[in-house]
Amino acid sequence: MSLPLLEIQRLNKSFGRVVAAHDIDLIFEPGVLTSIIGPNGAGKSTLINLLSGSIHPDSGSIFFEGQDITRLPIHRRVKMGLCRSFQVVNVFPELTVFDNARIPLLALRKRAHGLFRPVGGEKDVHREVLEVLERVGLPAEAGTTASALSHGDKRLLEVGIALAAGPKLLFLDEPTAGMNPVERSKILENIRSLSREGKTTFVIVEHDMDIVFSLSERVIVLHHGVVIGDGTTEEIRNSPRVREVYLGEEVPS
Fold first, then answer.
1. pTM
2. Residue 4 burial by CB count (10 A; 0-12/13-18/19+): exposed, middle or buried?
3. In whole angstroms, how far apart are CA 159 and each of 134, 167, 208?
4. In whole angstroms, how far apart are CA 24 and each of 12, 88, 221?
5. Which of 107, 132, 136, 213 has its CA 20 to 30 A from that of 165?
6. What is the pLDDT of residues 13-25, one digit of tens each?
7. Per-residue DSSP letters for 215-238?
8. What CATH topology corresponds to 6-250?
């Protein structure tokens, strides 16, 4: 029997009297596009921070492909294949789109100094960067300075930077925040396409219910740091507990 991609056992985290995670038990299997939802203060971002290594739990365990990563630093998790994006766009604005995507590839090969070498000297990296930009729909913008991109394309570039690290599991924290409908549609279709490739498993934190139910195969609902729902979109739509706490009449019966 194969090991889960990620397993969380009795995870707890408090900030003073505020409980952000309480006895959370979850398993993430490869290839299942998952959304994490919940009201403000539910503990969504805290959970992502715990899993990615930005903060450590008070108690509990986190296993990635069977290996205990509970106390591992962020860079070790990234090398293992666990990455994340952030709510705020996080790119190098003065570098080109190409160089933004090149940095993580060079870093993985311990050749970060190669950023200042001619591109021709890094042919393997050059090819992989172009492949990444093709995957996120930005090949034509390779020579564009990142600061000149639209907000939506900066978000796509951020996904590309994360993908360049070769993640097996990628957390996207509100990937459509601040986007107009056209940009939102573009990035959602991109995420669907990338998920179908099967190279990376996506877990998304999102507020927009239309996005959640149109995109996800699985939905996890948090409330005050507790998992109150975990199932298919249909199961979550029909959960009385979820309706009472979070979704209300936004989700038709």
1. 0.86
2. middle
3. 12, 11, 19
4. 7, 26, 11
5. 213
6. 999 999 999 999 9
7. H-SEEEEEETTEEEEEE-HHHHHT
8. Rossmann fold (3.40.50)
